[in-house]
Specification:
- The chain is mainly β and 165 residues long.
- The chain has one domain: YVTN repeat-like/Quinoprotein amine dehydrogenase (Methylamine Dehydrogenase, Chain H).
- Helices cover 0% and strands 49% of the residues.
- A hairpin with a 2-residue loop joins strand 3 and strand 4.
- The chain is globular, with a radius of gyration of 16 Å.
Length: 165
């Protein structure tokens, strides 16, 4: 049975609105796990409910930093911090539409730990975003306050190539 949650202690990453679903979902990073929340009204966090479903990321991530969910809710990408033991890697997970209890690691990853322009420059990726078709990946660097753009074949991390900043 879902439990009422008065406040989220993790910084939530809001998932896109999916029309036609009776309940809206939100996935949030909390420590080294992803937690699933529901709300009965799109874009309104009042009455947000913790679904009691979580996924432990420690098999891949040391310090999860950013999270992105596709509009269909079938893919989740998690960015691991690249400081204090983190790997600076993006990991890809698949799941049944908006159901965190079905999540599995796909085995796909992309190492973001090196500056794409000059590998000798400091680079600390802190968040990620994809376009709606999954052919553009954007990574925000906390050191230079720069957003780096990458091209890829639809949602396939094995095809990532630097495009511009």
């Amino acid at each position: 049975m879902p439990t009422q949650t008065p406040a989220i202690t993790a910084t939530p990453t809001f998932t896109p609105i999916v029309s036609g679903l009776p309940v809206q979902k939100l996935f949030a990073l909390s420590g080294n796990s992803i937690k699933q929340y529901s709300t009965s009204q799109p874009n309104i966090l009042t009455g947000l409910v913790n679904d009691g479903v979580s996924f432990d990321l420690s098999s891949q991530c040391v310090r999860p930093q950013g999270i992105f969910t596709t509009e269909a809710g079938t893919l989740i990408y998690v960015l691991d911090d690249n400081v204090n033991g983190g790997t600076g890697t993006i990991f890809k997970y698949s799941l049944t539409s908006w159901d965190l209890s079905t999540i599995v690691y796909t085995g796909q990853f992309y190492d973001t730990s090196e500056n794409p322009i000059n590998g000798n420059l400091a680079f600390r990726p802190v968040d990620l975003q994809f376009n709606t078709t999954g052919t553009k990946l954007f990574i925000m660097d906390d050191v230079s306050d720069t957003i780096y753009e990458y091209n890829l074949t639809a949602n396939n991390l094995t095809t990532v190539a630097y495009a511009s900043s």
